[in-house]
Design brief:
This protein is of the alpha/beta class. The chain is built from 12 helices and 8 strands. About 35% of the residues lie in helices and about 15% in strands. Helix 2 links the parallel strand 1 and strand 2. The protein binds thiamine diphosphate and iron/sulfur cluster.
């Protein structure tokens, strides 16, 4: 990536390699997330990429509760809590408020980033309507980042619309009569939002195991102007049931197995990037079993479950119009 991000808000050059990443931290010590929590890393990288002139708005969930113990906070930038389903409304309201205050001369006119984050419960389920509404208002600059730990983690791991097929959650424990309680395939959030919101110029998927790439996607989203959306896949040691030292590896495996494709949709143009680009160009994918069997939430899987999971991922890459983005079948093409 070599381009400069020019836009309605500001210019944020991409970091050209890890050594060029700024040293300043705006999400520091003082939080109580679990050891190995990738969502905490996402917060840290997200705001590091955005820089000091940023307002962060956080929907209820682990990244609110664990980050705001009474009288402590890791946030160095201004931060506000918003309701579980309100990340979209908070982003739009704050962006509109800033614009109005600047227009009336009540505050200095300057670029200020507005980032609202939500978990998958707050984003893919409860807050979907508000996110969708925000993505239709092209006159207000904001980024909504959905950190996806694939469950309602803060309230003890309930299944969400983003939980993978077959996973053991407190809502879907495997039993002797019904071995798989959760048999829905995960929602395609980024694809759905990109396909349905022509006013939104930028939608991307990210994974903090690829940190520089992730930060550059945040910088691009904040630079392009208008409302934008990023979906981040975050390994969660508690909910996924694995040794915290494996977080980085699981993030890589999600991409290398093709379970979570990394792509961006910029002004209607789809681009895969990183290892997903190599896969899209023909590089073999790792078997999904390497990803699934490292996680206790899939420990009850039989061979047939792994085969089903693999078949669904294969279908996405082999048969979809654009892997990870558009799950429509071409008329006349055999399924
Ligand atoms: C309207 C509403 N219903 C329920 C709750 C209780 N609640 C607090 S956090 C949470 C889980 C949020 O899950 P998610 O958005 O996926 O974020 P995570 O906890 O995984 O970080 C729930 C259900 C709430 N705060 N508000
Ligand atoms: S439960 Fe998961 S998302 Fe929540 S703080 Fe722990 S590791 Fe992070």
């Amino acid at each position: 990536m070599t381009e400069t991000f020019t836009n309605a808000t500001q210019i944020l050059e991409p970091f050209r390699g890890v050594k060029k990443v700024t040293l300043e931290e705006y999400f520091t010590s003082g939080h109580r997330t679990c050891q190995g929590c990738e969502s905490a890393l996402v917060m840290k990288l997200m705001v590091k990429a955005a820089g000091p002139r940023t307002i962060v708005l956080g929907a209820t969930g682990c990244m609110y509760v664990a980050n705001t113990t009474y009288y402590t906070t890791p946030w160095v930038v201004p931060w506000m809590h918003t309701q579980l389903g309100s990340s979209g409304s908070a982003a739009l309201g704050t962006a509109a408020g800033l614009k109005a205050l600047m227009k009336k001369g009540k505050m200095k006119a300057e670029p200020i980033n507005v980032i609202a984050f939500c978990g998958d419960g707050g984003g893919a389920d409860m807050g979907l309507g508000a996110i969708s509404a925000t993505l239709t208002h092209k006159e207000y600059n904001s980024l909504i980042l959905m950190y996806d730990n694939e469950s309602y983690a803060n309230t003890d791991i309930q299944a969400s619309g983003s939980t993978p097929y077959g996973a053991n959650t407190t809502f879907s424990p495997p039993g002797s009569v019904k071995r798989l309680m959760h048999t829905r395939w995960k929602k395609n959030m980024a694809g759905m939002l990109a396909a349905g919101h022509p006013e939104c110029r930028y939608v991307a998927t990210v994974d903090a195991s690829y940190a520089v790439e992730m930060m550059n996607k945040v910088r691009k989203a904040l630079s392009i102007g208008g409302p934008t959306f990023i979906h981040s896949l975050d390994p969660c040691p508690k909910g996924w049931d694995y040794d915290p030292m494996l977080s980085h590896e699981l993030g890589e495996l999600a991409v290398e197995t093709g379970v979570f494709p990394l792509y961006e949709v910029e002004d209607g143009v789809v681009r895969h990037y990183g290892k997903s680009k190599a896969i899209a160009e023909g590089r073999p994918r790792k078997p999904v079993r390497e990803y699934l069997l490292k996680q206790g939430r899939f420990a009850h899987f039989l061979e047939e479950d792994i085969e089903y999971f693999q078949a669904k991922v294969d279908e996405m890459w082999n048969k979809w119009e654009i892997p990870g983005v558009i799950p429509f079948w071409k008329e006349g093409r055999p399924r």
